[in-house]
Specification:
The protein has 236 residues and is mainly β. β9 and β10 form a beta hairpin. The protein contains one helix and 13 strands. It has two domains: 190 residues, Beta Barrel (Porin); 35 residues, no CATH class. The strands form three sheets. Strands 1-2-3-9-10-11-12-13 form an eight-stranded antiparallel barrel. The chain has a two-stranded antiparallel ribbon with strand order 5-8. It has a two-stranded antiparallel ribbon with strand order 6-7.
Length: 236
Amino acid sequence: MVRLVLTLLVVLFAASARAQSAYVAGTIGADVSRVSHTDANFISSSPNGSETLSGSVRVGTAVGSSWGVELEFVQSAHSHDQMTPLVSPLATNTSIASAPVITLPGFTFTSASNSVIPIRFVESDIRQSHSDFDASVWVRQAVGGSVDLVYLGGIAFSRQRTEITQNFPTILSVFAPLPPNSAFRSTTITYGTRPLAGVEARIRFTSHVRLIPGVRLQGIADGWLLRPYVGLGWFF
């Protein structure tokens, strides 16, 4: 990874110095991710993806008359999900709606015989954020005097941070000691390298300023991420 980044930086600045065609840009967009997940009757739901805001800064340059290279850093906002396992040991035709409800700290169940008894044991609060360092090659196609279409492909070096807070019901402290506030917290950092592809337009406003709407698609662990965005670029 380090060699690739250094090589791209050398190409970037060498081409920029020769052709004077470098640019810098900033974008704001949305990260729409979908991942493999599980749905079952004993668990509320495992996260199947998220939709968050994201922002990026990038620098690039033309290397030939219609192609070039680009480096980009992207940071997403935090997503938020909750998971609540449910245990239902009994289930018959007895309507749970007609059964008396008994509520204890951390537990909810019915007192009716032979009825469904959903018991909530642990609540998991999941917060995730995603950042990428992207290296890509692009090809430009002119479609008018002030508009270019750009097709790009490359590699996304990803870092995902996952924070999980597990809240335990107070009644469980009878069986085992619990930490303050009855919560366990853990943080996991995951790194990955995935392909990316995209298309964008570069619309001329002035001799130096371009409006840049576009969309990029990249792989993530057990899924994919779609990033529509819009930004402004300064072309030297």
